[in-house]
Amino acid sequence: MPGTETLKQPKQLIVEGKDDKIFFIYFLEHLRVDDIQVQVYEGKDNLGPFLKALLLTPGYDQCEVLGIVRDADDDPQAAFNSARTALQSAGLPEPPAPEMSTGDSPRVSVLILPNGNTAGMLESLCYAAVADDPVVPCVDEFLSCVQERIDGPNPLPKAQVGAFLATRESPGLQLGHGARKGYWPWHSPTFQHVREFLTSL
To answer: What domains sit in the chain, N to C, each tagged with a CATH number?
Structure first.
């Protein structure tokens, strides 16, 4: 069963992985939001068990808001339905649609990345946000060359982000640490729905 942390804030944001956690911590810092605690449920298949464990975690009785972040992967609707099923299994309110909240204490909402209606993941969102960076055509050309020679890389968005970060002053970083370095343009319109989701919690 995935582990939970003692609840230290009235608002909880739970995300898929450790890299996602770092990304959202720095996004929240940029937004100057300091009443949200970010926790990791360690993969989409662990969301249900994590939520059940969360209900038993010290401090849960003070939880006012619960935000869940999930990658769409190949099917955004299936991803959202899966999140609803996990909420139902834990006896928690089920939002009617992504980025809509429901319930009270906790009020629950779900964010499906990259945008709620297309396939993809957090990496897809970040790579779209840097589309105007001058190295992006170089990254695309490099990965196109790779794809002509081997079957991969898969998933492509992770390779795109990895190759993009390899061009920065401090290469070799993962997505979350790229956020710490300021490599993702928080003011990009690409992130607008994420900003709205976070500030609505």
So the answer is: 11-120+185-200 (3.40.1360), 123-180 (no CATH)
